[in-house]
Fold these 2 entries.
Entry 1:
Amino acid sequence: MFKGIFSIKKSLPYVGIFVTLLILPPIIPRFYIYILAVIFVTALLAMSLNMVVGHGGLFQFHHGAFYGVGAYTVALILTKTSLPLWVGFIAGPFAAALAGLLIGIFCVRLTRLYFGMLQISLGSLLWALVFRWYSLTGGDDGIHGIPMPPFISSQNSAYYFILIVLVICLIVMYLILKSPFGVTLRAIRDNPERCEAIGINVRRHQLIGIVIATFFAGISGVLFVLLEGSVFPDLLFWVYSLEIFIMCLLGGWFTFAGPIIGAAIMVSLRTFVGIYTDYWTLVLGILLILLIFFLPEGVWGYIVEKFGSRAGEAVEEENK
Amino acid sequence: MLEVEGIHTYYGLSHILFDVSLKVSRGEIACLLGRNGAGKSTTMKSIMGLTPPRQGTISFKGKSVMGKKPYQLARLGIGYVPDDRRVFADLTVGDNLEISERRSGDSATWTKESVYDFFEALGHIDHRKAGLLSGGEQQMLTIARALMTNPEFLLLDEPTEGLAPMVVKTLEEQIGKLKDRGLTVLLAEQNQKVALNLSDQGYVIDRGMIRYHGSIDDLRDNEEVRKKYLLV
C-alpha cells in the first residue's frame, strides 16, 4: 500500500515551497514571518483535526481542548518545575493524547452528533478546570512570559523550528493516512456497519484515530507556546474549536492539504481584515456562505477536483 | 455449521421476525426465498449481529454467538455480503480488498491475487475508485471483499438483485464455484431460478415466518408453496 507514495515528480513542487519558506526570513519583514509562523501552528492544528473529521468522519467538535492541554502542559512544566525544555516539549503531545484517549473512550460509544455533543461537554470541563484553577493555571489571566532557551527564543529561529516540525508532522500524517490504518479510517467514515461486517473493530479504530489526532494537536499547542510565550484559557474554549472546524471546511475536509489553506485564510482574515474592523467574522460569514454555494468541497477540494481529475485519469491510463 | 433457533427480531417496536429457525450444514448452499419485505435481509442481519434478535439462539460451529458484535462474527469466519452492495466508494478496488484481508489459520486461502483470479474483471480495475464501478462490478467487489476475510460461512443477501441477465449468469457460476471450494453459503434470493439451481436445501420465508423447509428438489416440485409465497 505504501508503493509509490512519494514520487520525485510529485514531490518537487512541495520541496520548492519548503525551500522558499526557508529562505524567506531574511527577505520579508518580521511581521509577515510572525504571521507565517502563526499560520504554520494553526495549520498543524487544523490538519490534526481533519484526520478525524475529514478522513475519519467523526464529529470532533472540541479539538481545541487538546490543543490547550498540550500548550498548558508545556507551559506548566517550564514555569512550575525545573525540568528541562525537551521534557515539556515531549510531555505536551503525550498529555494531549492522554486527554484524547480518556475523552475518546466515552465518545466513541456514540455516533455522529451525539459524539460531538458529548465531546463539547467533556472538553468544556477541561476548559472550566483551566479557567477556575487560579493557583495552578493562572485562571483567565493564563500564564505569560514562559521562558525559552536562546536558541529558539528569537522569532526567526522559532519560525525555522516550527516550519521543520510542521513538515515532519505533515509527512508522518500523510504516511498514516496512506497506510492500511488510514485507508480503514476512511472506510469507516464511508460505512461503519460494513466495516464491522468485514471484521474491523470500528470503535477501537476510531479511538486510535482520536489519540493520534490529539497527539498532533498537542504538538501544535507546544509550538504555540514556543511562538507566543504564553497560554490562556481561550485556547480550550469551544468557540476556538469551531474556528478550527471552519478551517477544515474552508480548505476542503476530504483533502489532505485543505486545512492548511483553511488555516491560512482564517489567520489572514483575522489579521488583515482585523486591522480595519473588529467584525472580521462578518467577512468570514460571507465567505462561508459563498463557499457553501460555489465551493462545497472547499477551496483545495475545488482545485483538486478541477485540476486533479486529469492527473487521476492519467494514472489510470498508466496502470492499464 | 449454523443453527438459528426460534429468533425474534424487532426494529424498535416493530416485530419483524417471528420464531425463525434454520440450519445450514457444512459445505452446502441453503437458500432463503421470499418476496420483497418478507424478512430475508433481516434474517441475514440478525445472524450477522447487525440487528441482534431479542429472543432465540444462534450458534456457529456448535458455539453460541448470541450477543457477539459483527466484527467478532467476521473474525469467527462468517462473511457477509449485504443486499445494498455498498462498496467503500472513496477507496480503490485494491484498497477495498486490502482492508478486508484477514488471515485465519488453515482456511486462509483467499488473497488479493486469488480473488482477482476468481473475479478476473476486478483484476483489471485494481486502481479504479469503487464508487465508479458498474452494478455488476460492485457486486463482485462486495463478494470479493467478504471472501478476503477468509470466511468458512458466507451470508449472501440477494447478490443478483438489479443486475443484467448476463451478469447474473456469471455470478451464478462463481457462487457455484465457491461451493466447490468448500464454502458454506446461506443465500437469500428473490430470483427463484438462481436459488433453485445453486442450492441443496431451501427455506421459504413470508411475513417474518419460515413457511416451508425442505430439500431443493422437493421445493422445485412443490408448486403450491412457490405459488403461494413466492409469486408476486
Entry 2:
Amino acid sequence: MSWEALIMQSKISYFNGTLFRKNLMRFWPLWGGASLAGALVPIAMLMEILRSSRYGDIATPEMTALFYAVLTKGVPIISLLYAILCALAVWHYLYNARSVSMYHSLPILRQGLFVTNFLSGMTMMLIPYLVVGLLTLVTSIVGGFLDLPGLALTALGVIGLSFFYFSTATLVAFITGNPFALAGLYFIFHFLAATLEWLLSVIMAGFYYGVEHAYSGFVEWLSPTIYLTINLNAETSSHYETFTVSTGKTYEEMVIDAAHIVNGHLILLYALAGVGLTALAWLLYKNRRSESAGDVIAVGWMKPVFRYGVSVCMALCGGLGLYYVLFDNFYSDLSGSNFAFLPMAFCMAFAGLLGFYIASMLLAKSLHVFRTTWKGAIAAVVAAAALCGLAAADPIGLERWVPALDEIESISFVQNRFPINVPSCSGNVREPETLQAFLDLHETILAEYRGPRPEQSDEEYSSLRLVYCLKNGRTVIRDYRFTYKIDDIQTDGSAIQKLAEIVTLPEVQLDNIFYDRDNDRQITGGTISGLYDPKTGESKDCTLSENEAKTLEAAILRDINAGHFGQSLYLPVEEHEKAAYTGRIMLYYIYNVQYADGSTSYRNSSNSLSISTYCTETLQALRELGVISENQQLLTQAELNNLFTVPADEAFDGDGDYIDPYSAPYFYDGTTIIPEAQEAF
Amino acid sequence: MIQIETIVKRFGAFAALDGASLSVPAGSVYGLVGPNGAGKSTLIRCLTGIYRQDKGKIFVDGQPVWENAPLKGRIAAIPDDWYYFSQATIRDMCRFYQGFCPSFSMERYEKLKEVFEIDEKRVLRRLSKGMQKQAAFWLALSCMPDYLVLDEPVDGLDPVMRRQVWSLVLGDVAQRGVTVLVSSHNLRELEDVCDHVGILDHGKVLLERSLAQLQDNMVKLQVVFRDGESVPEDLPVLHVSKVGRIYTLIMRMGAEEAQTRIAAYQPLLADAIPLTLEEIFIYELGGADYAVKDIVL
C-alpha cells in the first residue's frame, strides 16, 4: 500500500498525494513556462562562457552582487505576479459551484485540502526558482565564480518572499469567490495602503497652503512590494583599480570587493507575516460556505467592508480625477492652495456614490440594487463629503505646523522672485540663528496667508521651498508662493522683508555661492564673463590666475560676511536693474579623491556667481586686479539697457516697414527695439 | 441509515431547507421527490457534506457527515452536474478517485468497463452528456460505496442504459446492502425502483412513507351514482373529475374504507384503482397549493 494511502486512511489526513500530483500535472504549463523563461538567463550566461571568455574575469563578489540584486529588486515583483497565477491554479475550484461540490464531497478534511493545495501552490512557486538556481549553480561552477553562501542566502530569500506572496494570494483567494475578483483584490491588497495614503495626501496638500504633499509613507509597509522595492537593497563595497591595456594606456575600473543585502531582515519579517496570513486564510476556509462560489466577496462580514471600502476609494481616486477634469481650470489661478472645497466635496460625494453602487452591484451580481440600497447610498455620499470636509479642516494641523528649532537638523531652501528674472537663491543651512530666521519667516508666511485669492496686477510674488531635515530622520517639505506689494519690503516683520533679510545672511549666501565648499579643494583660477569694451562695443571675458582667483575669492567671502550679497534681490525692479551686474564670475577648483587601495585622483568643480553694486569688496578686488577698468567695464542691467535701447519709433525703416527683429541688427522685446549685440550679454 | 433532523439551510433571506426531516432505512432505495425549487439538491448537498446546514442534524450510520472524511469515503454521490477536470479522461478520474476512496475497486472498474463500453482514454469533455453520466456511474460504483446519493441520475441516459444503470444499483442494494437516496422528477421510474418515498416542498418534507403505505393511504374510485345524484358533500374528496356519468374521486384513505363509505350512497358502480406515484405526488402537492392550474390561454 502506498504511503499516501496509509496517510489517507489515518484518522485525520493533512495531505493527499493524489491531489498534490494532480495539481502539479494539471498546471505544468504554468510552472514549466515560468521555469523555461527563468532558465534562459543562466543558460545564456553559460553559453556565453562556453563560447568565449567574456565572463571569464567575473569575480565571485560580482556574481554575489548579481544574486542579491535579483533577490532585492527582481524577486518581489516576479513573485507578486507569479503568486497570483499559482493561487488561481490551486484555489480556482472554490469559484465554481460544480468544482467546489466535487472537492468538498471528497473524503478528505478541509485541512487536508488546504495543506495539499497550499503545498502544491508553493511547489509551483518554487520550481522555476529551483530550476534557475540549479542552472546558476552550474554556470557559476563552469565560470569559476561560485559563491555557495551567497547562493544559499539568495535561495532562503527567494523561499521567504515566495512564501509571503503566495500567502497573501491564498488569503485573498479565500476572501473572494470569483477568479476576476481574486486578481483585482490581490493587487488592491498589495497597493491599497500606500495608494490610499498618497491619494489622501494629494487631496490634503491641495487644500493646505504650502503643503506640497503630505505623503509620509508611514503605512507603506502594508504595501509590501513598494516597501520592499524601496527598502530592500543590495549594496556592494568596491574600489577603483588601475589597469594598463596593451597600448600602454591606463584606465580605472571599479572592482567589487563584497556584496551584502541591506534590510535583509525584512524578508524574514514578511515571511513571518505570511505565516499569520496563511493561518487567517485557513480560518476563512474552515468557515467558508461552498455556496459562495461565484461571489465577489465570499466572507459575510467583509461584504459591508467591501461596499463602503470601494466607496471611499472611489471617493478619493475618482473624486480627485473628476475634480481635475471638471474644476481644475476654474481655480488654477488662485494663489496659495489649489482645491476649492465645495467642488471637491461634490466630486468626492459623486464618485463615492458611484463606488457604492458599483460595489453593491458586484455583491448582488445584479444591476437592480437602487431600490434596496438607497439608505446605504445616502450614507456613502455623506461619508465621502465628510471625508472631504475632514481633509479640508486639517484636523492634525498640517498646514499650520512649523517644526521646533530643536527638532531640525538642517533646512534646504530654494527662493525665487517673480516675475522678474533674478537668479534664485538656494542652499542648506544648519546654524541655529539661521534656522531660527527661517522658522520666523515660515510662521510669518502662514500668519499673512488669507486664503486663496486671485493675484492682483500690482503685486509680485516670491516662491520659497523649504526642506526640513529633522533629527528623527524625517523630511518635511513646504513650498510657498506668496504675493506682496513692493512697498511691503520696507514693512518691518512682513514675510517679504524677512525673506529679503534672510537672503543676505552670510551662511545663506555662503551656501548659495560655495555650495560644495566642504570638499578639501584648491582654487585654480577663474573667469569673469560679460565685460563690456566701450571701444569695440563687444563683450569679452577675462581669465584669472590661481593667485588672482584667490584674491577675488577672499573679497567675495568678505562681502558675504558683510551681508552684501543678496542685497539687491528684493529691490524694486528699476533699482534692481541699477544694482545688478550682468557679468558673471566663475571660480575653478580642484580636489583630491582617495580610493580604498590608496590611489588618488583629482576632480574638478566650479562656482558661478553674480554680483551687484553692493558687493564693494569684490568690486574693489576686481579693480585692483585690473579686471575692470575703463576699457573693461561691468555693466548693470540698467546700463546695458540704456546702452543698447533704441526707441520704438526708430523700429521702422524709411519706408515705414517694420524691421524684422530676427533679421538683425535689432530684436523687439515688447517695448523697445534692442540691437542683437546686446544678446551677447 | 440516513437520518436528517429538522435541517435548515438559508441562502441570505431565502430558506432552501426549512426544517426538513427524513429517514432513509439502511438497505433501502429512497426516492426524494418534489417540485422545482423544493430544496432537493440542497438537501443532497448537505447530506454529502458540501453545504453545512444552519440548523438541524444529519447522521449517516449514526455519525455526523460534516467534515467526517472516513464517513464520506463510504458515500458516493452523482450530482446532476457532475464535475471532472477539463483535460481528464475516465482513466484519469479513476486514478483520482482511487487516491481518495480507500474502498475503490479496480476489479469492479475493469468489470464495469464491459458494461459501459466507453473508451476510457477519451477526454470526458468530448463525451456526450449521456456518456458522461455513464462515466459518473462507472466511477461511483467502482468506489464500492455503502451509501449512494443520486441527483437526477438517469437524466440523459437512453432507455436501455437506464435499465442497465438501475439494474447495477439495485444489484448493489441486494448484494451489498447499499442504501440509496435518489432525487428525480421521473416518478414513473422511481415507482419501479424505490421502496420508500419522501415528498419535499418549500424546504419541508410533506410526507415520507414506504411506497406501499403511500399507495394504501390514497385511493382512486370510479363511481357512477344513480340518476340525478352527484358527489355527496360529506365525502373527504381531494379531487373530482367527471367523464359522462363516471366520476373519478381521489380520497385520502384506504381502498377498503373508501368502498365502505361510498356504498352508503348505493352507487350503480364503485371501483377502487391504485394510484400511480405521479398521481400521489400531484394530489399530495395539490393540498400544498401546487395543483395543475386550469388556465386557458
